[in-house]
């Protein structure tokens, strides 16, 4: 029930009690009028919400934090106009009740304790207006539709299949409010935010002594024409070179190759965060860092392959475009099993080493404990250039624990010994700034 | 904890966005002005206050609008100082008006409204102004004694509704990223329709609201003290009969429509006339009662005489005046009844009140009281006079009165059994009527019923002879009359069989105005009834006049559902619109419907409040309502569900394959929606190495998509394969 309705009911009840005490009929009348306003508000709100259809159009892909335009169409199928209707777009609010002051307060207390000040509450409301904007219609005539567009921003990456639209109407007087939630199919992929990096370690090498006898181009795939050869079982029929076949007397096929290009890989081992908010935590910031690195690698000429956890192990995913990489990051889900983080990092690195092109630039983005990273690096003997981006989970919590400094120092030592660049992503620092200088060049 | 409180204070008092809607501000201003005018008019605030307050409010609103973007700290400081001054004045006035705090409270609210109007930057402040205006007009209504208050209340509601709409619209526009404006005509139409709907709903709620007893409070209004010049009157003085004779007149007293001839030392039963319906007074009471003026103890044959000559003085520097008579017998089973009287026309110098008055809040320091508890005031009651009486009314039930045993005080029987010479037929009749009764209460009740059932009420009955015995004339000749005749007959018949009784005169209850909450008593409500003495319980009223309620039965709660009497007023208003015959019929119909609904509501509540039946009834109602609600929810849910898939071989194949995918999902291999059964099977086979999955998928694909439906053998085979998959999974897990 809205604040206005509660106020009206309380005032009506107080007047009723006074009326009973002093036997004044006029007070009964005023009390009745206030209650009737609330009842009319409830009835009118409920009635107004019926026979209303809402359609929503939005882009299929957007970046988090960047405003995009949404078109909303409200259609009144009833015989009477609907007045003062508001529709709140809660696609990014996870549905459910709109977080009010109390739930925001509770979250604030959970995270950092103490009472929020007015600025924080207002900022919270401004953020809510950005992520869950409300559109109000003064009047929707009968059997008509009204459309409008508005800007909204996605607070975090993900794939959202439906949009929850909270439609509310308090009647003409706003004495009471009735809400109705509509689930409108409206798929949108929110890609993680990309920060432009000025520089990041990227030195893929072509090894003069390949580990295995392998050529620096792969034949049989790709689009580049390499030459012709005899037909082998399994060759696609469309590759048959008919002229050569006619000349040769046997089937001849065209062969293609894929030239060696400097390759890169990004290993992502980001687990469920223990600290931070839904939008800002080590996993989300890690994904933003990974997206930024992907974008940087792509600009350098190499769409990186992604090594991501799937079904208890790691998968290597190759994509043809930066957007495809970002889509994979958008739908990233942390591994369920958190145990053995150090071992998992080692496993990921091993898979990357075996399945990625030799000499590729490799970046690892993780939020596991620095000590586990140090353990994994100690036994690292890979030949790829390796960079580690650590999204420090504890930095997103209430208080930064002092023991973390020790672990970071240890990691720094190990990384220097192993010639591995470690970048620290922490709360309160912009990601581009975090990725601009490795830990070895900064004081811990 | 202090820091948290300080943080919370800063949080709730942080600057809010200003309200920019001019129309909303204007609407709130109009509502506040109407409430302020109502409070000034009905609160009798005086001309100076009446001029300053509205001007202050207008100036304040204008100033607030002009400086709404500024912090306005200097003004806030000044307002705080003025607020303290206003509160100090309020407390000072309160101590001088402890019996009726409404006037100082309304004055406080008025000045708060003026001060607050100088600091209204945000919508929240304007909403507060609207709420306080509503409270103010409600209090103004509590001080109004007539229906004229509607002339201010109706415009206030219209303006208030407009303010609510404009405020709601403004709030919606400010919290929305986009506000799509509509056509003005559409919004205006919706506002008009909603406003019209509010009216009947408000009236229905008003009528249905129970008039519960409420809390006891020191709400005891009284006019300002009068300064008496000269000695106090020691006898009753009726302004309508200034030249009243010292002895019983030989010829009937002249009748004056505006003044009841019974408020004198003699009650002449020969006088005839129809009193006017001009309002004599308005009474605010927690329950209906008869407003007694005086009593008569000696029957003269064609009239009554008040033979009391000895009055006792009652004096007090401040209210209340405590009423008691030396030598009065003890009395039990009484309850308090608070009544406030608002005098509308000149009345005799007697304090009207329900019997037995105990505390009187009267604007003089003196009163006189006689042994029959007639209260004589030092001045006649003039229009505008207000006084309050706390009475102790009898709470004795008929059963208690039937069982009464005790002694009569000395001299009481001699005084109240005395009768002049009259026909023995009167006593004979009384004895015949009460022959089978075993106690005094039943005897009196029998006589009362006899008179009600066998005699007709006739205000225009012919006059008896000047010296003719009224009771004999009434009982054996005329067989009809009005209240004095019925009461006299009952009192005389009671005396004839040895039951002490006397006549009391005053005003009947009057008509309850549901809007004001007052009993409106007119000159036509002048009435006479009987008081019968019962040991232990004292004088108990009886009213044998047909059509009137028994005073003993006017218990608390009888007007609980009096809100439905509003229908009678609506009927009266409608009757003026239609031709005379139709109008009377409509008025009568509305009156009967109102009374009927009120009685039905009372009966329902009485049933519910009855111990076991009530609990069961309420419980059954809840079950019924809950069942209806659940059924409705179920119907809705079922309607929103897709229709069930009809059963068949293909559906069974789907279910079997679904079982397999469920098992595999549980093992960590969920099927993606975009995967075909064969792709999924290939994926699972490569991951798990369970070859049966592929075969099952092939069987399923054939069963599901082939033109011919699968046979029972195929389904059995498919089912067996799924069992094998399950066994493989279990063995792998092991």
Structural class of chain B: alpha+beta
Count of alpha and pi helical runs of chain A: 11
Name the overall outline of chain A: flat
Unreliable runs of chain A, pLDDT <50, ≥5 residues? Answer: 95-102, 110-115, 206-218
Give the overall average pLDDT of chain B: 84
Strand order of the largest sheet of chain A: 13-12-11-14-15-16
Uncertain regions of chain B: pLDDT < 50 for 5+ in a row? none
Largest sheet of chain A: 6 strands, mixed
β-strand number of chain A: 16
Mean pLDDT of chain A: 80
State the helical fraction of chain A.
Answer: 25-40%
Distance, first to last CA of chain A = 52 Å
Largest sheet of chain B: 7 strands, antiparallel
Explain the overall architecture.
The complex is a heterodimer of chains A (444) and B (734). In chain A, 33% of the residues lie in helices and 27% in strands. Chain A has helices spanning 3-22, 25-49, 101-112, 118-131, 242-248, 282-299, 322-330, 341-355, 370-378, 403-417, 431-434; strands spanning 52-57, 61-63, 68-76, 82-89, 134-140, 144-152, 158-169, 178-191, 218-230, 252-258, 264-269, 305-310, 313-317, 361-366, 386-391, 421-425. In chain A, the strands form 4 sheets. In chain A, strands 13-12-11-14-15-16 form a 6-stranded mixed sheet, with helices on both faces. The longest helix of chain A is centred in the first third of the chain and has 25 residues, at 25-49. Residues 95-102, 110-115 and 206-218 of chain A have low confidence and may be disordered. Chain B is an alpha+beta fold and 734 residues long. In chain B, the strands form 5 sheets. Chain B has a 7-stranded antiparallel sheet, with no helix packed on it. In chain B, strands 4-16-19-20 form a 4-stranded antiparallel sheet, covered by helices on one side. A 3-stranded antiparallel sheet of chain B has the order 2-6-5, with no helix packed on it. The mean pLDDT of chain B is 84. Chain B has 21 helices and 20 strands. The interface between A and B is large, with 65 and 73 residues. Strand 5 of chain A pairs parallel with strand 1 of chain B.
């Amino acid at each position: 029930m809205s604040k206005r309705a509660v106020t009206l009911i309380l005032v009506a009840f107080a007047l009723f009690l006074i009326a009973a005490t002093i036997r004044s009929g006029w007070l009964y009348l005023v009390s009745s009028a206030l209650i009737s306003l609330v009842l009319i508000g409830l009835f009118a709100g409920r009635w107004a919400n019926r026979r209303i259809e809402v359609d929503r159009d939005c882009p299929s892909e957007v970046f988090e934090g960047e405003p995009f335009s949404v078109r909303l169409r409200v259609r009144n199928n009833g015989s009477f106009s609907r007045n003062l209707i508001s529709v709140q777009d809660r696609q990014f609010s996870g549905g459910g009740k709109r977080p009010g002051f109390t739930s925001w307060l509770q979250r604030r207390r959970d995270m950092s304790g103490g009472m929020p000040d007015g600025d924080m509450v207002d900022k919270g409301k401004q953020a809510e207006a950005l992520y869950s904007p409300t559109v109000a219609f003064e009047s929707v005539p009968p059997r008509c539709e009204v459309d409008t567009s508005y800007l909204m921003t996605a607070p975090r990456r993900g794939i959202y299949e439906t949009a929850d639209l909270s439609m509310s109407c308090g009647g003409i007087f706003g004495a009471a409010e009735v809400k109705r939630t509509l689930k409108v199919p409206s798929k949108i992929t929110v890609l993680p935010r990309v920060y432009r990096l000025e520089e990041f370690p990227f030195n893929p090498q072509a090894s003069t002594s390949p580990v295995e006898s392998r050529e620096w181009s792969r034949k049989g795939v790709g689009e580049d024409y390499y030459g012709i050869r005899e037909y082998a079982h399994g060759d696609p029929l469309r590759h048959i070179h008919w002229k050569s076949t006619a000349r040769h007397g046997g089937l001849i096929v065209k062969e293609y190759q894929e030239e060696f290009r400097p390759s890169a890989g990004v290993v992502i081992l980001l687990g469920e965060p223990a600290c931070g908010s839904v939008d800002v935590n080590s996993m989300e910031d890690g994904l933003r860092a990974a997206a930024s690195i992907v974008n940087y690698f792509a600009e350098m000429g190499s769409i990186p392959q992604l090594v991501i956890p799937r079904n208890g192990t790691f998968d290597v995913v190759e994509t043809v475009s930066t957007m495809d990489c970002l889509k994979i990051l958008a739908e990233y889900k942390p591994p369920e099993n958190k145990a053995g983080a150090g071992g998992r990092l080692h496993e990921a690195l091993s898979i990357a080493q075996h399945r990625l092109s030799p000499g590729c630039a490799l970046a690892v983005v993780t939020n596991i404990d620095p000590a586990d990273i140090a353990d994994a690096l100690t036994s690292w003997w890979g030949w790829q250039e390796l960079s580690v981006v650590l999204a420090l989970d504890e930095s997103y919590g209430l208080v930064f624990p002092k023991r973390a400094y020790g672990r970071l120092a240890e990691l720094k030592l190990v990384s220097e010994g192993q010639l591995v660049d470690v970048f620290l992503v922490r709360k309160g620092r912009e990601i581009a700034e975090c990725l601009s200088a490795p830990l070895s060049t900064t004081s811990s | 904890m202090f820091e948290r409180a300080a943080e919370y204070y800063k949080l709730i008092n942080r600057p809010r966005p200003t309200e920019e809607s001019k129309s909303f501000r204007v609407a709130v201003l109009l509502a506040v002005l109407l409430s302020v005018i109502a409070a000034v008019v009905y609160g009798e605030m005086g001309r100076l206050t009446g001029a300053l307050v509205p001007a202050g409010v207008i100036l304040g609103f204008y100033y607030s609008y002009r400086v709404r973007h500024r912090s306005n700290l200097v003004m806030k400081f000044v307002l705080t100082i003025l607020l303290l001054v206003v509160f100090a004045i309020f407390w000072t006035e309160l101590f001088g008006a402890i019996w009726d705090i409404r006037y100082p409270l309304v004055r406080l609210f008025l000045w708060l409204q003026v001060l607050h109007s100088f600091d209204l930057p945000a919508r929240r402040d304007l909403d507060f102004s609207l709420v306080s205006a509503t409270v103010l007009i409600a209090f103004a209504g509590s001080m109004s004694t007539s229906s004229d208050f509607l002339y201010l209340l109706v415009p206030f509601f219209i303006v208030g509704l407009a303010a609510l709409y404009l405020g709601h619209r403004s709030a919606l526009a400010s919290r929305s990223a986009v506000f799509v404006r509509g056509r003005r005509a559409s919004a205006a139409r919706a506002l008009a329709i909603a406003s019209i709907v509010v009216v009947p709903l408000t009236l229905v709620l008003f009528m249905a609201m129970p008039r519960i007893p409420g809390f006891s409070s020191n709400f005891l209004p009284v006019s300002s003290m009068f300064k008496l010049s000269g000695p106090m009157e020691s006898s009753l003085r009726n302004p309508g009969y200034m030249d009243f004779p010292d002895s019983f007149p030989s010829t009937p007293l002249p009748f004056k429509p505006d003044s009841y001839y019974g408020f004198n030392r003699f009650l002449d039963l020969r006088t005839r006339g129809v009193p006017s319906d001009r309002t004599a007074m308005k009474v605010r009471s927690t329950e209906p009662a008869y407003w007694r003026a005086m009593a008569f103890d000696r029957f003269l044959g064609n009239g009554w005489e008040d033979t009391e000559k000895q009055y006792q003085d009652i004096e007090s520097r401040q209210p209340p005046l405590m009423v008691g008579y030396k030598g009065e017998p003890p009395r039990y089973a009484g309850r308090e009844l608070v009544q406030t009287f608002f005098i509308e026309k000149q009345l005799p110098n007697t304090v009207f009140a329900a019997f037995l008055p105990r505390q009187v809040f009267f604007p003089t320091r003196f009163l006189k009281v006689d042994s029959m508890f007639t209260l004589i005031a030092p001045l006649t009651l003039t229009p505008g006079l207000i006084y309050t009486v706390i009475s102790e009314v009898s709470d004795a039930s008929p059963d208690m009165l039937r069982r009464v045993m005790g002694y009569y005080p000395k001299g009481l029987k001699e005084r109240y059994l005395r009768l002049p010479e009259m026909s023995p037929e009167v006593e004979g009749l009384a004895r015949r009527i009460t022959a089978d009764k075993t106690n005094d209460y039943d005897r009196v009740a029998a006589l009362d019923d006899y008179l009600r059932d066998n005699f007709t009420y006739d205000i225009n009955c012919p006059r008896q002879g000047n010296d003719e015995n009224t009771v004999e004339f009434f009982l054996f000749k005329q067989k009809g009359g009005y209240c004095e005749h019925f009461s006299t007959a009952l009192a005389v018949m009671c005396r004839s069989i040895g039951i002490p009784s006397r006549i009391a005169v005053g005003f009947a209850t009057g008509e309850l105005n549901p809007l004001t909450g007052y009993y409106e008593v007119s000159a036509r409500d002048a009435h006479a009834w009987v008081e019968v003495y019962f040991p232990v319980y004292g004088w108990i009223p009886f009213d044998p006049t047909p059509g009137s309620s028994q005073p003993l039965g006017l218990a608390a709660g009888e007007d609980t559902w009096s809100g439905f009497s509003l229908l009678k007023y609506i009927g009266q208003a409608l009757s003026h619109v239609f031709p005379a015959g139709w109008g009377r019929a409509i008025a009568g119909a509305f009156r009967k419907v109102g009374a009927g609904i009120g009685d039905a509501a009372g009966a329902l509540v009485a049933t519910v409040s009855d111990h076991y039946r009530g609990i069961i009834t309420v419980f059954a109602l809840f079950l019924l309502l809950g069942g209806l609600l659940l059924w409705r929810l179920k119907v809705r849910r079922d309607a929103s569900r897709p229709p069930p898939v009809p059963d068949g071989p293909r559906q069974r194949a789907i279910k079997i394959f679904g079982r397999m995918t469920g098992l595999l999902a549980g093992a960590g291999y969920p099927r993606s929606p975009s995967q075909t059964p064969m792709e999924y099977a290939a994926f699972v086979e490569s991951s798990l190495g369970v070859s049966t999955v592929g075969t099952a998928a092939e069987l399923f694909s054939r069963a599901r998509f082939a033109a011919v439906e699968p046979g029972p053998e195929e389904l059995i085979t498919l089912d067996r394969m799924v069992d094998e998959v399950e066994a493989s999974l279990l063995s792998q897990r092991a």
